[in-house]
């Protein structure tokens, strides 16, 4: 297949629309459904991300994409009991690739609602069963077991998009795109992100664990396919906060840090023990939890909204309790797609338990950033690599 006609482009008025190869065949097979323009943008960007994660770590990898940026990304690390509870997977048997996607979706479950999924490994029945119960638009993977494909073909009344990617495909060295009738051309960003990028450590603390190196690699590869400016917080092999497309880097750090904080607050015993009614859907639970851990939750609950969700009104989750719990979050890794121009980014990162940092370096205020890291005994690597993505 050399080209694929699409229903429309980004919006219904943008017709005609298609994808095509200037040379050779398309490296995909559509096994089910009819992908749209944005589906395919998400599919091809997310596939690159998980392919590189697998190559860099050797671990099954997954990503959850929305509007051409990852809502979450992760490599396989087994789930403990708390993670199983906050990801609603108690009692489920999860394969390594299924676990990787559960973690990726768990980074920001609200943003992952209606996502496009990418898997580095063959989608098995375990992963397909998990996908079948979550709201998403489609999946791209190097293959599917017969049982997995049968499960996925029933999703969304038979319209779930299932794409098989040719693992051997290699894109051209030069890439082009048109903007306002003008063609842009550049070399493809084929830089490899490995531990070698983490060897220059200008901070006083130079003790970087193997787990920290893994997490920083996850952060940097995730940033490579995130709309810039961007920063990414990672813990235990999964993104826990991604800030994308902000004009100010400190706003990225705040946005991603707030998401990381929400991820950790979900693990507090008050959240774990919320008295949900049995028939409340997972998406509604996610929304209710997001409200409960917000600063204005008492005003919302006072309106009687809780009666539709909980068997009884939840106990207040005070700012003091949240602050005390967040103070216990440690060993978080933070990556940035370019240099931090001010120490304020590090100050914000410290509030979310960051111990390890990777950034390009090269700011005229590098000394101030290093000094701020030293104040909190952080380990920071200068990668000398910028990862802008547009």
Written account of the structure:
The structure is a single chain. It is built from 13 helices and 15 strands. It has 390 residues and is of the alpha/beta class. The protein has three domains: 3-165, Cytidine Deaminase, domain 2; 174-265 and 326-382, 3-Layer(aba) Sandwich (Cytidine Deaminase, domain 2); 269-316. The strands form four sheets. It has a six-stranded mixed sheet. A five-stranded mixed sheet has the order 12-11-13-14-15, sandwiched between helices. α3 (96-106) runs parallel beside α4, α4 (125-133) packs parallel to α5 and α7 packs parallel to α12. The model has no long low-confidence stretch (mean pLDDT 95).
Gyration radius, in Å: 21 Å
Task: Please state the structural category.
Answer: alpha/beta
Fraction of residues in H or I helices: 25-40%
The ordered H/E elements are EEEHEEHHEHEHEEEHEEHHHHHEHEHE
CATH class of the largest domain: Alpha Beta
Q: Determine the N-to-C terminus distance.
A: 28 Å
Reading side by side through the largest sheet, how are the strands ordered? 3-8-7-6-4-5
Number of strands: 15
What is the multimeric organization of the chains shown? single chain
- Kindly report the CATH topology of the largest domain: Cytidine Deaminase, domain 2
* Spans of at least 5 consecutive residues with low confidence: none
In what range is the share of β-strand residues?
15-25%
User: Architecture of the largest domain in CATH?
Assistant: 3-Layer(aba) Sandwich
Strand count, sense and barrel status of the largest sheet are: 6 strands, mixed
